[in-house]
Structure formats: structure tokens, C-alpha cells
Please model this.
Amino acid sequence: MDSGEDTHPKTASRFGAKTITTIAAFALAAVMLYFSLRGIEWGQVGRLLRGAKPLNVALCCLLATVALYLRAFRWRILLTAETAIGIAIAFWATAAGYFGNNFLPARAGEFVRTFMISSRTALSKTYVLTTAFAERAADGIALVVITGIVLLVIPGKTPWLANASKGFAVIGIAGVLFIGLLPRLENLALAILARLPVSERIRDRLAHTLEHGLRGLRSFHDGRRLAGFIALTVVIWCLDATSAVIGGNALGLKMTFPMAFILIAVIGLGSALPSAPGYVGVYQFVCATVLVPFGLSKTDAIAFSFFAQALSYFVIGIWGAVGFLQYRKLHAPARQAEIAAEVPVST
Model:
């Protein structure tokens, strides 16, 4: 009875927080869409999309698939710091996670892929989720570096981004320090935790969560593992930029690599905002804001945003759906065994 009374307010609180976040995400998407789509020549958008070159579209799909596989392989580098994990499990979980981010609000895909990995391995959910968020943080740091390099090559094109990148650089440095230093302060954190005025049960639960979370961050502390992670990050973002250039050319738009790198960097950094499924609104606003200073019309930028998002939905939709099916296929025997163990044997 007491436990029910304890958990009900927590459940209600989590539900309320999730509802507020979802409402904020859709409200932000609506505002961004309103400002992005004003004055658009919809006839021209339709002509550009209908005229997309099939060979370029197919090549974009191939590059997106390769990039997804490399993202799974990169995440696996962090996960295998604790235990061996097959690339197939990591790939299907990654695909399902990106599927969740495209079709569910509040980046729910991170929890989807965390649950899929933890249910198929001995890794705790806290450890897996920490590696997932640390991977995202590392991507943010990489995007800040990319933005800084590109702005050195093409100064003056986007002064607002040059100013904003200074703030992002500070955040990026803080992220590096957080990942690098926090695991070394475990004893201090446990000492502080021991002094908290909470029950022993809560203290043990917090200590367990802290331990597994720090182990997730500590996966970056191996030199070879970190070098492999950084190398794959460079390759992945180069593939994404190449796909953006080929996608622009598919629509007959002049998309250069500096434009593509800045675009994917700002989209990546913008994904930290509360967003609707698939970053609808955020994607359109970023494309219109970034591409217009480079000479594209707002209509062209919006057409590209629709093309790129549709491509993402298609590729991630296929691999993510297969990922969910693979998970159910692999999980079914284990679940049946659990059910069988719970059924009493009649005599």
C-alpha cells in the first residue's frame, strides 16, 4: 500500500514533465514552420522534388545506410568496453533508436536502443544510456570543431553562426572536461552521496546508478578506443556532407561541401532543442537560415529540407522497422522461457 502511494506521485510527475516537453516541442516546431514557410513558391518546390535525379537519390540512400552502419559500429566501440557485443545487435538497436527519434517525440529513440541493448546483454540500462548520451555529446563536440574549421574557410558568410559558435565552443569544452574528469571524481561523488539525508535504499540506488553511469563515461578513457571513435566520427560526418552535396545536386541545386558541413553541423546542434518527431520545423528553419546566405532561394532551401527529411524517413524507416522485427524475433524465445518458468507444474 505504501509503495503504491510512493510511486504514484513519481509516475504522475514523470508523465507531467513528458507532457510539458512534448507540448513545448510541437509548439516550437509550429513557430519554426510558420517563419520558414512564409513566402514559399510551392509550385517551384513541387517541380524541384519531382525532378530529383533517381541515380543521385539511390546514392544518397546508400550513403545514409553506410553512415547508419558506421554509427552502430562506433557505438559498439563504447559498449564493448564492458562486454563483447555482436555488430548485428548494435546495428539493429541503432536503427530502431533512430527510427524512434524520427517518429517519436522527445528523443525517445535513445531509450529504445538502450532497452534493446540492455535486454540482449548483461549491460545495465544506466551504462548503455550513458554511452548513448555520451556519443551524442561527442557528436556535438565534433560539430563545433567542424563549424569552426568551415568558418575559417568561408568567413563572413554567416556572422550569426560565427557568434553562436563561440558559445557552442564553450559548451563543447565543458563536455570534454565532463567526460574526461567526472569518472576520476568517483570517490568524491560517493563520499558526497554518503552524506545525503536519504534512506539507505535510495542511497544504494543512487550509488548503483552513479557507478554504472561513470563506467559508461570511462569507456572513452582507453586510447585505442578513443582513436577509433574519433576516426569513425570523421568518416561519418564526411559521408553525411557528401550525401547532402549529392542530394542538392539531385534537385539541381548548387550545394558545396562548406555549405553541407555547416548545414549538418547546425542541424546536429539544433537537435538539442525540444523537437517534434523527425525534427520537423527545426530542419526547415535551419535549412532556410543556413542556405539562403550562400545564394539559394528560400524556396530552394525548403525544397531541399523536404527532400533530405523524406530520404531520412525512408532509409531509417526501412532499417528501423527491420530492427524492431529482429528484436522481437530474438526476444521471443527468451520471453517464452520466462513465461514457462512462471507457470507452475501440475502434478
